[in-house]
Amino acid sequence: MKLVKFKSMFFLFIATLLLLAGCSSSSGKDSDTSTDGKVKLRFATWDVGDDVDLQQKMIDKFNEAHENIEVVLEAYGSDYDTKITAGMGAKDAPDIMYMWNYPQYKDALEPLDSYIEKEGADYKDNFYEALWNYNSADGKILGLPVGYTTHVVYYNKALFDQAGVEYPKAGWTWEDLQDAARKLTNKETKVSGFAFSGKPDPYDFEMFLWGNNASYVDKDGNLKGNLDSKESVEVFEMFQNMEKEGIAITTEGSGSTEMKSGKVAMFVYGAWGLTPLKEAGIDYGVVELPSFKNGKSVSILSSSGVSISENSKHKEEAFEFIKFWSNEEANKERIGFELPVLKSVVESEQLEQDEIKSVFYSMLEKSEGYTPASFIVKDWSRVSDNLNYVFESIFNPSTLMDPKEALKNAAE
Amino acid sequence: MKIPKKYKIILYGLLGLFSLYFLLPFVWVILAALKTEAEVFSFPPKIFPDVPQWKNFVDAWNSQPFGTYLKNSVIVTVMTTLGQLISCSLVAYGFARYDFKYKNILFVILLATMMIPWDVTMIPLYMEFNMLGWINTLKPLVVPAFFGSAYYIFLLRQFLMSVPKDLENAARIDGANEFQIFFKIFLPIMKAPLILIAVLNILSVWNDYLGPLIYLQDQSKYTLALGLAAFKGIHDLQILPIMSITLVMIIPPVVIFLFAQKYIVEGISGSIK
Amino acid sequence: MLSKSRKANGYQLVNKKVPYLFILPWIIGFLVFTLGPLIFSLIMSFFDWPITSSPTFVGIENYKTMFTNDPQFYKSLEITLKFAAVFVPLNLVIALILALLITQPLKGIKMFRTIFYLPAVVSGVAISIIWGWIFNSEYGILNYILSLIGIEGPQWLVDPKWAILTIVIASAWGVGTMMLIFYTDIKGIPQELYEAAAIDGAGLFRQFFSITIPCITPTILFNVITSVIAALQQLALVLLLTGGGPLKSTYFYGLYVYNNAFKHHELGYASANAWLMFIVILILTMVIFKSSSTWVFYENEVKRKGKKKK
């Protein structure tokens, strides 16, 4: 008898649980259409803070103008990749995604060439040409460009003034940079003339090789004869020598934290630094990258675009949205956060005259026609990992490997 | 129990030393949350802000729908704690106080579930929740708790194992059924460890952020931990909001801990006699 | 022998099904939420699955690569085991010392108890940022403080020699949970045991080793096993604080698996990695558990001994 009572209690408990589970699955969400018959599109962004607020406002505008579509923003910040990777693995990726690492995600993205063709040639031509390469993989366009940045040198004006050094100007060389760094470095006040990452992202670092007429790989993806070429070794030696001489420090991250301390005079960074450095109270200027003695001043592009998931059930509507997301109005709205990618906007907003932003555009023009190794090498994320390790062993103060040898080994 | 004076000095010395280690980083967080961005990053480090920036807290709170996040966090935390307490007390009791066939192998399996690497089961689990239609709801975060977690079951079992066997046998001879023994005798005994489990669960669920990251989608479903992480972008962190929200977020678990202390102090066998 | 006497003591009164009813919730949860994904990941370890496209069957290729063609596998395994060997005992001892400290009847002990517990409450995101600040070699707080007293601090997160120590220091910060578990158990030890021992003339240290420790062996076992698991799967801190560096000196196994899955998109390979670690942990746990019969005392054995003395 008593046992029966006990049992029944138990089954009641279990039954409640199952009911709970059952209910929820029947009332489960329908990811295709929301309750009012609209097409629901999920849109994932990696941006944070004010950026997201602005994006939400723009989405609201889009939703108002489109009776049949409802776009929902999902902001994942620094864990963006984990989240969308999980989504792709479970075949539940967002319909629309911010994207930059196209080679890595290409199989899960919808090729957009046919969509773009329908918009006419003028549509495509209004974007800066260099950007299309960065938003493609295997010869297919996989995203519409939304923003980009080239890399420039940020310099701390206060430190230059204190040391009585002239601000750098476009057309300067790495030797000029080293001279300036020498004068700016002050052991007593802990000022460092220049800072660069002690474990640079190989994707970013390749621009220095380009500047010295080298690259990681040739067009067939061979490291040998390229990564370990004389020109390439020179670049690494130059950076390592600055560190050995004590006129540059290596940083643990990108260097922006160190720059914010107000004790670093110069470092190389993208447009990401513009607002944060201002908020940290640094009075800075920006200038084009220095050029190499026998070379040029070239920057890699870090570009972002918006892509459509291959598994999306509403690709037409999604394209409608990403077209909106990269149109002139949107470019203008985003101007405080992102460098416009449309020539017409750059012109109408007179960005070529903007003291700071013009630097990024002139870098962009100088940097056309280079293809990063990540687009050539098949297994880039592995190769990049290995390169990263080799670079770190060249710049880490506890190893300071000889670049020539380290690169030779790496190329093999 | 009296403590000799020379021991007291040593004890306070140790307490002070450990407090430094635990407290200093913390003090730094509080101070940082009250600074301006420039003051946070300045070098040599500035200890105190010129003017305490209390508005950092307000700005941070208002920059995202933290009211909603708070509500979601509370729901998830309360529900999971409830679920864990119910199911873990039953399961741990079963493992600790009975002998049955396959007990050892089942217990090994239970332990093994603690060792499953999260990375590789996450995607299949995602698929399962997706089939159930649970993605973008709080269910994936809440429902599994009602089936117990190995960590708490194991912990509770360890406590229950040290309760003398005579206890339930006496009750059985008096004619109590198993259900009554569990409720009338063992639940009161388990008070301290159950409170402990509640405290631990609140703590881990409150701060859990991988679960919410993977299973939730739009902001209206986010939890506090996810909101906090959303201040961290790929290229830059918003340091002031992170510090202030961190401080706000620790208040509930700490308050709960202060209340729980009283019960934990009683210990497990305190109530046996 | 023990189980025989147990049976004689009343187990025969219990319906055979009752125990299963008690553990039923967990069994259901296991079947519904754990078993499926577990089997799925085991199957996946025999596939090549680049996440963005479909899996292809490769047999034991993943395991073969792992053992014969991936030096990082061994390195990560070695680093992780070394870390666990240092971290687990250290953490246990610290937690135990803290738990003992906060049981002392001293003034203001409640405050210290809260202070020690505080760090465990801070979310992982903030922890990594705080430690990153403190340990930054050029402009970090710790080295600044050291420089004030004339010491040139090491390059904590840059020098591979120091990086592991940095991780140990940073992870020991969250020892509060384990401390609390010990504390709850110590609080449950009947006071009369100590009184009896004191009458017998046992000093504080004798009391600690002959009463406290034996009484809490069940929770020691719990903490040993769970911290071995935690140490071998350590991911969050290295992911956020060091990213595996400098020079891969903190490239723990957990990070290795995570990167294989989410950075390199090789989910099949990552599953193989994960299963290997699963088996390693399982064996370790079994060994610890087997050994526990010699040093863990359940069922008030010690407490009874104490009472007899009385």
TrEMBL record, chain A:
<protein>
    <submittedName>
        <fullName>ABC transporter substrate-binding protein</fullName>
    </submittedName>
</protein>
<keyword id="KW-0732">Signal</keyword>
<dbReference type="InterPro" id="IPR050490">
    <property type="entry name" value="Bact_solute-bd_prot1"/>
</dbReference>
<feature type="signal peptide">
    <location>
        <begin position="1"/>
        <end position="21"/>
    </location>
</feature>
<dbReference type="InterPro" id="IPR006059">
    <property type="entry name" value="SBP"/>
</dbReference>
<dbReference type="Pfam" id="PF13416">
    <property type="entry name" value="SBP_bac_8"/>
</dbReference>
Automatic annotation (TrEMBL), chain B:
<dbReference type="InterPro" id="IPR035906">
    <property type="entry name" value="MetI-like_sf"/>
</dbReference>
<protein>
    <submittedName>
        <fullName>Sugar ABC transporter permease</fullName>
    </submittedName>
</protein>
<keyword id="KW-1003">Cell membrane</keyword>
<dbReference type="Pfam" id="PF00528">
    <property type="entry name" value="BPD_transp_1"/>
</dbReference>
<feature type="transmembrane region" description="Helical">
    <location>
        <begin position="181"/>
        <end position="206"/>
    </location>
</feature>
<keyword id="KW-0813">Transport</keyword>
<feature type="transmembrane region" description="Helical">
    <location>
        <begin position="105"/>
        <end position="126"/>
    </location>
</feature>
<keyword id="KW-1133">Transmembrane helix</keyword>
<keyword id="KW-0812">Transmembrane</keyword>
<feature type="transmembrane region" description="Helical">
    <location>
        <begin position="74"/>
        <end position="93"/>
    </location>
</feature>
<keyword id="KW-0472">Membrane</keyword>
<feature type="domain" description="ABC transmembrane type-1">
    <location>
        <begin position="70"/>
        <end position="260"/>
    </location>
</feature>
<comment type="similarity">
    <text>Belongs to the binding-protein-dependent transport system permease family.</text>
</comment>
<feature type="transmembrane region" description="Helical">
    <location>
        <begin position="141"/>
        <end position="160"/>
    </location>
</feature>
<feature type="transmembrane region" description="Helical">
    <location>
        <begin position="239"/>
        <end position="260"/>
    </location>
</feature>
TrEMBL record, chain C:
<dbReference type="InterPro" id="IPR051393">
    <property type="entry name" value="ABC_transporter_permease"/>
</dbReference>
<feature type="transmembrane region" description="Helical">
    <location>
        <begin position="83"/>
        <end position="103"/>
    </location>
</feature>
<feature type="transmembrane region" description="Helical">
    <location>
        <begin position="21"/>
        <end position="47"/>
    </location>
</feature>
<protein>
    <submittedName>
        <fullName>Sugar ABC transporter permease</fullName>
    </submittedName>
</protein>
<keyword id="KW-0472">Membrane</keyword>
<feature type="transmembrane region" description="Helical">
    <location>
        <begin position="274"/>
        <end position="298"/>
    </location>
</feature>
<feature type="domain" description="ABC transmembrane type-1">
    <location>
        <begin position="77"/>
        <end position="288"/>
    </location>
</feature>
<dbReference type="InterPro" id="IPR035906">
    <property type="entry name" value="MetI-like_sf"/>
</dbReference>
<dbReference type="InterPro" id="IPR000515">
    <property type="entry name" value="MetI-like"/>
</dbReference>
<feature type="transmembrane region" description="Helical">
    <location>
        <begin position="115"/>
        <end position="134"/>
    </location>
</feature>
<keyword id="KW-1003">Cell membrane</keyword>
<keyword id="KW-0812">Transmembrane</keyword>
<keyword id="KW-0813">Transport</keyword>
<dbReference type="Pfam" id="PF00528">
    <property type="entry name" value="BPD_transp_1"/>
</dbReference>
<keyword id="KW-1133">Transmembrane helix</keyword>
